[in-house]
Specification:
alpha/beta; about 180 residues
Length: about 180
């Protein structure tokens, strides 16, 4: 029997916060994006997806939703540095350049089509090459599109923006890029 890379622990979305957009729509071992679309969504770029999908959430996504509400956004969107689903990144497969490129294209297209000018860097310390390569490719696109990256203080000791599970969201933001 093959053990799943995804936790079986799922949570419900907060009331009226279920996603209206999931890419890809059908469940796959990867996810490019997930969110409740709106005129002014909080866009977060996290590490890699876990259990959240159209019907059930996970703790990270619910933290992003809570931050969006606290900060006065009318929606939320979660992207990841790399799209492979794994609750613990140690269980990810080797880097897939094609999958990473498709992830970057979905992110770029969404940000440009929706006029997004800033995103929340929320990936934490990245220990695995797939996550680092994905982040670097996304940062290139953000720089090309003049999209700013912010985070909530303090950063990790390594200087990275903290993951949503490990920080207190405050109104004060710090510029990452």
């Amino acid at each position: 029997m093959v053990k799943s890379k995804i936790t079986t622990i799922v949570v419900n979305y907060p009331e009226n916060q279920a996603p209206t957009w999931v890419e890809p729509r059908d469940y796959k071992p990867y996810r490019f994006g997930l969110g409740k679309l709106s005129k002014n969504p909080l866009v977060a770029i996290c590490m890699n997806p876990s259990a959240a999908r159209d019907e059930t959430s996970d703790r990270t996504v619910n933290r992003v939703i809570a931050a969006s509400q606290k900060l006065g956004y009318d929606g939320w969107v979660v992207f990841n540095t790399y799209p492979e689903r794994a609750t613990d990144a140690v269980n990810m497969d080797e880097f897939d350049a094609g999958l990473s490129q498709e992830n970057v294209e979905v992110i770029r297209d969404f940000l440009v089509e929706n006029g997004i000018t800033e995103v929340w860097g929320a990936w934490g310390n990245l220990k695995y090459e797939a996550l680092k390569q994905g982040r670097d490719a996304i940062l290139e696109v953000l720089a090309e599109q003049d999209i700013k990256v912010f985070h909530f203080a303090p950063p990790t000791k390594a200087g990275n923006p903290r993951h949503p599970l490990y920080l207190k969201v405050e109104a004060e933001r710090k510029r990452y890029l």
